[in-house]
């Protein structure tokens, strides 16, 4: 154990207990999944979820606290789980397989769905389904790995606030609140998601459903989504950049910043990857714009204008982008391609926010080139594949559409070269070779 560790007790017993509980919990989930007819899935599966949760905390606490802040990333490229080794591939295959079963073979998850039945009845007053199971697992992943991130970056107030924020929005706005709405027989609605990420929220069918089944509340939901998409998003992005959503609110970003944090260094930093990024994400954004317009035109013409063409656009987007890209690839490939594959290459919301950030926002990351020692930590741990070191070496501000403002580049910089700031637009592209002394901050 490191001499400067604030964790004064030998952490080995806690780690051992934690790993034991995780192993027993995974066994319980396996039994619930394949042996639910022989043993109650509520006992085996519910107990498994509880054991994995407690075991994870018992393992995370000593594992993070026994390391000083400067050593938190030690071994990232040597450990099989985080360096595309055999363990990483196994994790990736399991995650990918789970998403495939979730989307296209949900009956295979019947036992696991039954395991969360009591929670579903308590929270929503209705039977569980595969999506409630997914929401439960998703929220637990954000919360448990959120504890991991809080301890890992415990010296940085920005990281503590950011991580607490995504944990709050995932638990409250994306899990508890939608369940409460169903409990009250109101339409299920996720207030932290809106168009174009939650693309169907502005589709005519969804708008009609919310008005008919939700009454005044349904109208407010439509109003909320429209205001967030077209008014609040430009205003907030102007002041804070895309980080206000991608790193503080969004559930996709929340999972990436917590459960995906151990894999952030795996993002491709090559120029070729950047070309693919531009070639994919903006056409996807354009596709959902065209699909939304076609659906509304077809609704207005009562189907006479395009027939089923607009519906075909919607189904195509839902399958290839909504399921395959954002789910199967976006999360399943964390251990292979990094934690922001979906956010970087496919998310239409990220494209929308990125354009606003690049051309209209006050947000930027300033650099002090005179202090840069070219260690490359900033580029290595940039989850969006930005070569931050190139900007730092030249003392240029980083104003990139893809930057989500996670702040890790500043966190891992040993010289305090980088600073996240919101300033006037004047001179945004002029560089920052002449940095005022008050602009230099060591985090």
TrEMBL record:
CC per GO annotation: plasma membrane
Gene3D superfamilies linked to this entry: 3.30.70.20
TM region(s), chain numbering: 16-36, 42-61, 82-105, 131-151, 163-184, 217-239, 279-297, 317-337
Keyword field contains 4Fe-4S: yes
Signal sequence extent: none
Keyword Transcription: no
Top-rank lineage group of the source organism: Bacteria
An MF annotation (GO) of this entry: 4 iron, 4 sulfur cluster binding
Pfam families tied to this protein: Fer4_10, Fer4_5
Domain 4Fe-4S ferredoxin-type positions: 363-391, 395-423
This protein's UniProt keywords: 4Fe-4S, Electron transport, Iron, Iron-sulfur, Membrane, Metal-binding, Transmembrane, Transmembrane helix, Transport
PANTHER family on file: FERREDOXIN-TYPE PROTEIN NAPH
Protein name as annotated: 4Fe-4S ferredoxin
């Amino acid at each position: 154990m490191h001499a400067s560790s604030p964790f004064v007790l030998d952490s080995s017993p806690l780690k051992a207990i934690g790993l034991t509980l995780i192993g027993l919990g995974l066994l319980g989930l396996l039994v619930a999944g394949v042996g639910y007819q022989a043993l109650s899935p509520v006992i085996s599966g519910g107990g498994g979820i509880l054991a994995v949760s407690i075991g994870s905390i018992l393992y995370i606490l000593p594992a993070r606290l026994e390391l000083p802040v400067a050593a938190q990333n030690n071994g990232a490229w040597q450990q099989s789980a985080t360096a595309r080794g055999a363990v990483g591939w196994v994790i990736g295959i399991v995650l990918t397989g789970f998403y495939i079963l979730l989307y296209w073979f949900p009956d295979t998850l019947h036992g696991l769905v039954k395991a969360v039945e009591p929670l579903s009845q308590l929270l929503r007053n209705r039977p569980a389904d595969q999506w409630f199971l997914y929401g439960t697992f998703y929220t637990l992943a954000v919360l448990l790995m959120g504890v991991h991130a809080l301890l890992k970056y415990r010296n940085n107030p920005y990281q503590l606030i950011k991580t607490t924020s995504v944990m709050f929005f995932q638990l409250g706005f994306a899990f508890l609140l939608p369940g409460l709405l169903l409990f009250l027989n109101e339409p299920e609605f996720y207030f932290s998601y809106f168009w174009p990420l939650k693309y169907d929220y502005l589709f005519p069918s969804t708008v009609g459903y919310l008005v008919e089944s939700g009454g005044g509340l349904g109208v407010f939901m439509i109003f909320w989504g429209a205001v967030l998409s077209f008014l609040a998003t430009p205003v907030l992005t102007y002041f804070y950049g895309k980080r206000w959503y991608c790193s503080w609110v969004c559930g996709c970003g929340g999972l990436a910043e917590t459960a995906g944090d151990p894999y952030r260094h795996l993002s491709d930093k090559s120029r070729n990857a950047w070309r693919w990024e531009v070639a994919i994400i903006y056409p996807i954004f354009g596709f959902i714009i065209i699909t939304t317009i076609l659906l509304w035109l077809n609704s207005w013409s009562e189907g006479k204008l395009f027939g089923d063409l607009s519906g075909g656009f919607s189904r195509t987007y839902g399958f290839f982008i909504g399921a395959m890209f954002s789910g199967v690839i976006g999360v399943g490939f964390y251990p292979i391609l990094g934690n922001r594959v979906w956010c970087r290459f496919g998310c239409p919301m990220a494209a929308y926010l990125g354009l606003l950030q690049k051309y209209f926002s006050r947000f930027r990351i300033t650099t002090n080139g005179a202090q840069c020692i070219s260690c490359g930590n900033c580029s290595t741990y940039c989850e969006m594949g930005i070569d931050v070191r190139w900007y730092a070496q030249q003392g240029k501000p980083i104003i990139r559409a893809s930057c989500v403002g996670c702040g890790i580049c500043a966190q891992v910089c040993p010289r305090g070269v980088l600073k996240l700031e919101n300033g006037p637009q004047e001179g945004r592209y002029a560089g920052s070779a002449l940095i005022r002394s008050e602009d230099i901050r060591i985090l």
